[in-house]
């Protein structure tokens, strides 16, 4: 979280929300929202608050992540806000059943 890079102590849920935003981004995108080859570069990128949104991310998911990765911890979404966000309320896509399995029939 930006406040950690600024030398502030752990203050609770706000930092956890930032971390959850990073985890959600990684789960959706398969990459980190902020990275760098050095700690200094990583720090600069986190403190800028800018990250790329891939073309395949839904606008609702983008909205939620942007509200979790807000630089100002007092403006970051709370757990209650996250639970009520439109993206969290969507029905999860159904997984299609596998058409074959290695245990169904011998080859």
TrEMBL record:
PROSITE patterns: PROTEIN_KINASE_DOM
Keywords annotated in UniProt: ATP-binding, Membrane, Nucleotide-binding, Transmembrane, Transmembrane helix
GO molecular function, one term: tau-protein kinase activity
Record's protein name: Protein kinase domain-containing protein
Origin: domain of life: Eukaryota
PANTHER family in the record: MAP/MICROTUBULE AFFINITY-REGULATING KINASE, PROTEIN KINASE DOMAIN-CONTAINING PROTEIN
Protein species of origin: Homalodisca liturata
Domain Protein kinase per the UniProt entry, residue ranges: 1-88
GO BP annotation list: intracellular signal transduction; microtubule cytoskeleton organization
Membrane-spanning segments: 17-34
Pfam family of the protein (one): Pkinase
Annotated GO CC locations: cytoplasm
């Amino acid at each position: 979280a930006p406040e950690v890079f600024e030398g502030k102590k752990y203050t609770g849920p706000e930092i956890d929300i930032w971390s959850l935003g990073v985890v959600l981004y990684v789960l959706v995108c398969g990459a980190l929202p902020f990275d760098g080859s050095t700690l200094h570069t990583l720090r600069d990128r986190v403190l800028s608050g800018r990250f790329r949104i891939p073309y395949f991310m839904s606008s609702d998911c983008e909205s939620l992540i942007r509200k979790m990765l807000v630089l100002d911890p007092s403006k970051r979404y709370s757990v209650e806000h996250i639970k009520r966000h439109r993206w969290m309320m969507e029905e999860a896509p159904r997984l299609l059943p596998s058409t074959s399995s290695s245990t169904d029939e011998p080859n």
